[in-house]
């Protein structure tokens, strides 16, 4: 059992309620490590040209050590009802937040990498209680947000773990909670999982909504593209080649990097901010899109649970790699309708419709990669719009 959980009694469904309770000694150790950081020299160049700037990270580290209040954010996370249960031999942690609206549709949310259930802390309220957020109470959801195995408080998976196995676990979880008709949603890693649940449980899933990922061309599509479409492909390749290739890094030697990320909180913070900088493409720095303390809560969760290494399994198991060695986008399915928060070009729509029944393809929705964090109200509104016609 995870040492950070304080159990508050058994449940009749084979699940155990708990609250997060990080030992004070762990908080003291974190602060001590932060204050004793051995800082590197600043390399030549400007801004983020060679990585996270030293002055930027120093200031953020100072806030993490002396301004950020983990206990306040721990208490906020504990405001969400949480459970642990064993599925397929693995202990799984989840947020289970029922709506005050009795006819709400159950919705399974799957977070991304390098994220956690912290991704949904601003989204859950608008989804479960739209009446309190200026929305239609008829469009409410009961939210189930599990921690993916290897992330946060869920047990790390064994070698050979797959998206399909995870999807079967999520279908079992929803059935165990008494939900036999529900929607699935996710971004980043969650965009791979959401359609996979529909593939394994098409009689239960009413629709699949993802933040983005359907319809991106791959190397296998190039031969059949028009001249204009090939130019679009080349532009996408230039965009995708920027930043640190975490797919290559984590499928090569995640154990090697995990030593630094597990021993040095500033090393972990630098890695996380590098990735969130790349993911928040609409602003110069991540905290201009996502609240700084929410970012630090996510980093803190990785630090306290020691899951920077165990969360690497999707990349190490090559689940995002196509047969030709290129990048593999989420696999579609036609058993239930699908929708996307960030619709794309006509080329992307055409390719998305090869393997999906697309019924929702909006244009102009705001936000960056993790829209549940930087645009939670717009994200909630789009999820409601997609599921409105499927209830």
TrEMBL record:
The keyword Cell cycle does not apply. GO terms for molecular function: cis-stilbene-oxide hydrolase activity. One of its GO terms (biological process) is epoxide metabolic process. Transmembrane segments: none annotated. The active site is at 188 (nucleophile), 316 (proton donor), 369 (proton acceptor). It comes from the Bacteria. Belongs to the peptidase S33 family. This is Microsomal epoxide hydrolase.
């Amino acid at each position: 059992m995870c040492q950070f959980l304080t159990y508050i009694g058994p449940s009749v469904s084979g699940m155990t309620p708990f609250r997060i309770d990080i030992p004070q000694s762990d908080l003291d150790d974190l602060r001590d490590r932060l204050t004793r950081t051995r800082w590197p020299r600043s390399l030549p160049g400007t801004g983020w040209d060679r990585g996270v700037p030293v002055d930027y990270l120093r200031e953020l580290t100072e806030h993490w050590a002396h301004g950020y209040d983990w206990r306040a954010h721990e208490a906020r996370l504990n405001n969400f009802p949480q459970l642990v249960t064993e599925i397929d031999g693995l202990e799984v942690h989840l947020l289970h937040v029922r709506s005050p609206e009795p006819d709400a549709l159950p919705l399974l949310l799957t977070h991304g990498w390098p994220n956690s259930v912290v991704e949904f802390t601003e989204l859950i309220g608008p989804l479960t209680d739209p009446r309190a957020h200026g929305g239609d109470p008829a469009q409410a959801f009961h939210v189930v947000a599990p921690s993916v195995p290897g992330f946060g408080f869920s047990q790390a998976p064994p070698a050979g773990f797959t998206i399909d196995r995870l999807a079967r676990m999520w279908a079992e979880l929803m059935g165990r909670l008494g939900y036999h008709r529900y929607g699935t949603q996710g971004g980043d890693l969650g965009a791979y999982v959401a359609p996979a649940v529909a593939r394994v449980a098409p009689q239960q899933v009413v629709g699949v909504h993802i933040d983005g990922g359907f319809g991106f061309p791959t190397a296998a599509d190039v031969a059949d593209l028009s001249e204009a479409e090939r130019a679009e492909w080349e532009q996408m390749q230039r965009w995708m080649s920027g930043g640190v290739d975490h797919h290559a890094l984590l499928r090569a030697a995640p154990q090697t990097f995990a030593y630094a990320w597990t021993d040095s909180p500033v090393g972990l913070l630098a890695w996380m901010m590098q990735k969130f900088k790349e993911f928040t493409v609409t602003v110069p720095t991540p905290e201009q899109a996502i609240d700084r303390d929410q970012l630090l809560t996510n980093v803190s969760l990785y630090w306290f649970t020691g899951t920077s290494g165990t969360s690497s399994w999707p990349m190490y198991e090559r689940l995002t790699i196509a047969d030709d060695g290129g990048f593999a986008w989420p696999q579609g399915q036609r058993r239930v309708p699908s929708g996307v928060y960030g619709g794309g070009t006509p080329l992307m729509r055409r390719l998305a419709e090869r393997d999906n029944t697309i019924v929702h393809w909006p244009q102009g929705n705001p936000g960056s990669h993790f829209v549940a964090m930087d645009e939670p109200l717009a994200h909630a509104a789009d999820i409601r719009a997609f599921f409105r016609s499927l209830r």
